[in-house]
Automatic annotation (TrEMBL):
Name of the protein: 2,5-diketo-D-gluconic acid reductase
Coiled coil, from the record: none
Family recorded in the similarity comment: Belongs to the aldo/keto reductase family.
Binding site for substrate: H107
Residue ranges of every copy of the NADP-dependent oxidoreductase domain listed in the record: 16-260
Keywords from the named record: NADP, Oxidoreductase
MF terms (GO), sorted A to Z: oxidoreductase activity, acting on the CH-OH group of donors, NAD or NADP as acceptor
Stored InterPro entries: AKR, Aldo/ket_reductase_CS, NAD(P)_OxRdtase_dom_sf, NADP_OxRdtase_dom
The organism's taxonomic lineage, starting at the top: Bacteria, Bacillati, Actinomycetota, Actinomycetes, Propionibacteriales
Catalytic center residues: Y49
Annotated positions for site Lowers pKa of active site Tyr: K74
Keyword Oxidoreductase: yes
Amino acid sequence: RAPAVTAGGSLTVPAIGFGTYGLNGLPALDVIRQAVASGYRLFDSAFNYENEGAVGAALRSASVPREELLITSKLPGRHHAHDEAIATIEESLLRTGLEYLDLYLIHWPNPGVGLYVEAWQALIEARERGLVRHIGVSNFLPDHLTALMEATGVTPEVNQIELHPYFQQETQRAFDREHGIITEAWSPLGRATDILQDPVLTGIAHKHQITVPQVVLRWHTLIGSVPLPKSADPQRQVQNLTVAGISLDEDDLAAIAALDRPAGRIWDQDPATYEEF
Ligand code: A2P
């Protein structure tokens, strides 16, 4: 298994986690149980994915002890007001059937709603009550993070952002690093769009006799990103987790760095303005 990554705070996470967006209902149970068997221990869900029930049921019946698993969910923008945030966290727990969640994130800053600081105070309270062990955010920009830290003195332990070779987020990663915040990557493979066919990445994969997803996931771990790939396929689940021994050289890393592009974002919304969700 890949080595762990530690934040400035008390949270240590595995180098690679498992994304669950798009896994729903009974079929999700088998996929998530399989992911545990494949070796994943960090799982990422969200209230809005409508799969907290499946994630909880799969992990409650998994063959590894609860304390070895790190289970994440996220607060939607429509529930940022304090009391709604608390009720939503409690509802997440009821849906998962778990006594606590390991990590709870504010899903988006939704700055137009203007309540993310209030939501953050609710997460701090939920952590004090033991409903969740660690708290963080997702899709937050430096301004949003600064506002949280100034208002509460509490630094998020994680910031989960869109991050892949076409959208490398260097400024945000530097900000996170400077504040001891773990950067997790959603859609680490660019959601299997053109990235998996990219000629530069294909060339690097051929050179090392590995697959393009392995090149990309190894790159994540080398730049200090914790990728959360999702795969329903057992062989691909294992393949995605088996990257620790891969040595990308300086030429490879320079070639990947050059793939970053201004229009590389997959999600067509900017966190600075995105309000739905
Ligand atoms: P599948 O579930 O059939 O494996 P992301 O995590 O960036 O959102 O990308 C997820 C997508 O990438 C899914 O469609 C998944 O399909 C696909 N995928 C994940 N791992 C691999 C892999 N090793 N090879 C090819 N496709 C993969």
